[in-house]
Fold each of these.
Amino acid sequence: MAKKSMVEREKKRQRLVKQYAAQRAALKAIISDESKPMEERFRASLKLAKLPRNSSATRLHNRCQLTGRPHAYYRKLKLSRIAMRELGSAGQIPGLVKSSW
């Protein structure tokens, strides 16, 4: 089980990303628009830098829904390998069979 503080920190980041997504997209559109004057693009880049760091989507890290484990994460199931193995052994994941020989 991951530390609760780390899981909560990740939830806070997800909230911030969702909250600032439209604002960040608008500023990035202004910055990348070559037809706009250089001063306006520079002001937009300064505004983008003033936004919280954790509002950037690149700071998000995938975590297991059950345990909060950040490593060995399967995106399709949103589970870590350990949680997936336990659920697979219990027969709770359709189509997953734990191999044994």
Amino acid sequence: MHINAGVAGLVAAIVLGKRIGYGSENLSPYNLGFAVIGAALLWVGWFGFNAGSALGSSGGRAGMAMLVTQIAAAGAVLSWLAAEWIGKGKPSVLGAISGAVAGLVAITPAAGFVLPGSALIIGLVAGVAGYWGATALKRALKYDDSLDAFGVHGICGIVGALLVGFLAYGPLSATTALPEGSSGGMEQFIRQVIAVAATMAYTAVATWILLKITDVIVGLRVTEEEEREGLDVALHGERIN
């Protein structure tokens, strides 16, 4: 899901092009407080997303999914801040909440398959990978992804999907039909690589086609005047001051 969203966001950013003033004007987040509130809501809600996938609280699988979700998110916050501190000379609140989302994204494909120690590894790797994706990679490829959909969701989704191929602990996913569960190893890692590649290819092509169809029917960008005024006012006639 996150790889899908990240690649779709990347293709959309490339097709739409850069925002007016990108690279020359201050386009930092409008309200950092709202961003923190949003990240906090995401973090809490993610427990229901990951642990709720067990469809019940018996057997300990839901509890383990909740635990590894918390550990990975916390680990990613720390590693993102460390990378930001090294790279920019100071950590930031925006970096902390971005790291939390990076860890939550990365642990999602692994939540029902890994133990706490492996979850910490995934979170630490995801924090650094997400920071790299949102900074160095974006600069290198010269695309304008205002929400870092690819840098955080795409890159960290790939990290989680690939690492679970090595770190999956079989007994956690054991069923009557498959008593040994799904264990990590080279065979499982190769399956994960194939799945990631297929998802990226399908999403990129499908998104490009849908964007081109949308452009023909209604267009993809507003006018320069509307963009500078802000879409809240231009399209909805209201905004929060």
